[in-house]
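Hello,

Our lab assistant flagged a job as stuck in the queue for most of the afternoon. It eventually completed. Since we weren't sure the result was trustworthy after the delay, we are filing this so someone can double-check. Below is the sequence as submitted and the structure that was eventually returned. Let us know if re-running is recommended.
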Amino acid sequence: QVQLVESGGGLVQPGGSLRLSCAASGSIFSISDMGWYRQAPGKQRELVANITPGGTTNYADSVKGRFTISRDNAKNTVYLQMNSLKPEDTAVYYCNQFLLPVGVRTWSNYWGQGTQVTVSS
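-- returned structure --
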């Protein structure tokens, strides 16, 4: 059973920083793209950033220059360093990994449980 476990959310003042982590566990054969999404109250889930196995990154315009996505392939972990946080960054953040479990023939998207990020003074 593959699971994604997130950590690192919390309450931070505007201008502050947080680092989110998401580790995949279980019998995993291979992992392709990893990413972070967020969903604010009353809004649809949106892509924040994603990263390919080779390290190519893509960011939403709203976070460019402030957030950095990275990955540790040996640890099946994706990170999101969030700097210069703004109140509009407040949301539940979800990690996503597109992976192939051992003994399974199809790739699938797996999601973390979500972690709350609140930016407020």
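-- support follow-up --
The delay was a queue issue, not a problem with the job. The result is valid. The first strand starts at residue 3 and ends at 7. The CA atoms of residues 81 and 119 lie 14 Å apart.
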